[in-house]
Request: fold
Amino acid sequence: MASSNSLMDSLFQRSLEDLIKGIRLQLHGESSFISKSLDEIRREIKSTDLSTKSIALQKLSYLAALHGVDMSWAAFHAVEVVSSSRFEDKRIGYHAIAQSFNDQTPVLLLITNQLRKDLNSSNEYEVSLALECLSRIGTDDLARDLTSEVFTLLGSSKAFVKKKAIGVVLRVFDKYPDAVKVCFKRLVENLESSDPHILSAVVGVFCELTTKDPRSYLPLAPEFYKILVDSRNNWVLIKVLKVFAKLASIEPRLAKKVADPICEHMRRNVGKSLLFECIRTVVSSLSDQETALKLAVARIRDFLVDDDPNLRYLGLHALSIVAPKHLWAVLENREAIVKALSDEDPNVKLEALHLLMAMVNEDNVSEISRILMNYALKSDLLFCNEVIASVLLACSRNSYEIIVDFDWYVSLLGEMARIPHCQRGQEIGHQLIDIGMRVKDARRELVRISRALLIDPALLGNQFLHPILSAAAWASGEYVEFSKTSYDIAEALLQPRTSLLPPSIRAIYIHSTFKVLVFSLKAYFSAQDSTSSPLVEESTNYVSSLVNAFTYESISSLVDMIELGLCSLSGTLDVEVQERAKNVLGFTGMIKHKIIEKVTSPESVIEASRAVAFMEDVFSEELGPVSSTAQEKVPLPDGLELNENLEDLQEICGEFLKPVVDSNSNSFSSSEKISFSVAKLRISDQLEASSSSSSHPPESASLLAEHRKRHGLYYLSSQKSDDHDDSNGNNNNTLNEYPPANEILADSFNPKKKMNQSKPRPVVVKLDEGDDIKMKPDGSSNHEPLSRAIQTALMGKGKEKEREKDNPERSLDSGTKEQSLRKDKKTKKKNGEKSSKHRSRRRSDKDASAAKPVDIVDFLL
Reply:
């Protein structure tokens, strides 16, 4: 009965073509059709007929590949299909296994014997299927168990099988490094193969291996050099060049040796792919060879003027590699690079932009910035912002070391904000503030540019530019003494259009207005005094003239304008804006009242002057830049453990951290109904200390006391213990004495020398040299076992020769032992002791590979 059902299933079973046609006919409801097909596949795959099972598995593989259907449930059925004697079924099974199996597949170990059987098959196509499957799903166990079969196939007489076995070696070495002892010698022997397919495969394997640890493959340089000289296969030469690019960076003598063959390839009429690989090898690893480098730069020029955008991109990419060491190569092709900025290909434009920024120095920064800003004005959104970001990064590098005229650069930042597609407001605003804090000579121009930005209506509606307005508002208030008239600054800060800004930025506007008001009032009262205040004495002539310009009418007008502008903000919903507005209004009300009483009560003016002087002292301290590593420089107090495990704190303090809800009320109130009784922590500790003679404390309290004893540094000290002295009478508050996070000393200021320009470079405040961001070192390599195995295989014979020279008697003893072993083997064969032919061949191959490492000649001498 079961056989009749399987026969009916095979007769009426839909093929893969039928499934594809059915899916294409489904205009709507494709998912329902796939569900029905899956139910059909689940029924068919249980058939005892392997043909029916293989077709069902083929359809399932198609649905998994194109529609993401899970096929992990059919893993055992795939193993069954692989065991079929028909090649078509076996191909479908191996494809399904390679597609769905992984290291966690439960039935993975069931295919080990089947793989070994197919690897030893006389049918080269079955061997090919097994090798391809092993290269996809090979695990540590599979690689260990099948190493001997792969070793045998490396010496196969069939080129089709041998080249695939060479490719599988890469996976086997990665999963099972000890396979190097068995297979590496035969892999090296294939470097001398005359078959181009085998040679291409083995060179490809070594190209991948050298990317992991190139130093281990230096002894193979003679073999690679021979291929470089003799081969005319472009793809083989490309792989060999990649190998030499890795090796030459380690061994300097190798660069001189391979420079001539590479130059010969560049002079020949070779393919563009090989020519570019020669150029990349020279500019990346042979840049010290002058002749080769000049020839490579000349060939790069041919790429830059080519009509193909792909070749132009490759030429620019090659220049970007050579630019760090040999900038002259970039300068020689400057015209072609600038022309590439208007290329239609966005990748070509980006490469040209990066190259142009590599040429920037203090002499040409103005010219290059002007060229790039013109391109940014007529470029699309993406490239425009790339141009702006590149200019900002290049100009701010190393504390603006290439900027001599900061007035020009501040005005350039203002022009960037007006570019239509600009979305780099965060970076521009940060640099405006940074320059204001670092460069005192640029503050006057900064205030002028900031006011121009504040009154520009086009910037208010662009959310990407709001950080620029925030920085401009801060600079206008912080450095108001450099403005022409403080009234204009306050008017710009209080204009009605600021309602378009978010509350966080409006709060900065209000705070800057407060600074402007305090400075103006201080200047007014200083001008009224008969004796000069410290502000006037220490100020420059420009600030002094500004101070003397304030009169009663101008101050009254400024105060009235501020009151009018902030009255509407005192009732806003945002608490930050509302609080700042009310603070300023309260201050202006008090000052205005005192000024009006000037005639009747001179003491009111004195009182107002003192209040203004106090507020002016609050803003008088100059702000400086903060190092990115300032927090790391704060020393940890002695005894503070930051790595202790506090996971048990929640369990111990659970009852103290629970919210206390008023049972008499059904509603919750954040201020009255719910309160977190953290104070209970301190009260419970005090109760424990005072009631030692009373009843035992609860378990949670005792656990809390124990936890506090172990982790006392994490708890806030009580009021009594804050001023507690130890037994010796010494105050025990040293742990709370933290040094300031950012204390800039006079010695930290490192002014630059004067440049060779008409205008000397101003002083730029720089932080300590140790404030650079430290890069974390790379972790240890994951390929150390494979590297050690390769080095052992390559260097073993040289070490044996040295041992023989040092101990000739030991070598004689080993020779006599080998002779005796050979005699024993002959006697065993004569006595008729038989062993498996396959096992003996495998064992002899292993012994040969282990006893005879590769002999490498030092051809560099």
User: Anything to note?
Assistant: The first strand starts at residue 659 and ends at 661. The CA atoms of residues 385 and 778 lie 32 Å apart. The chain has a mean pLDDT of 78. The two ends are 80 Å apart (CA to CA).
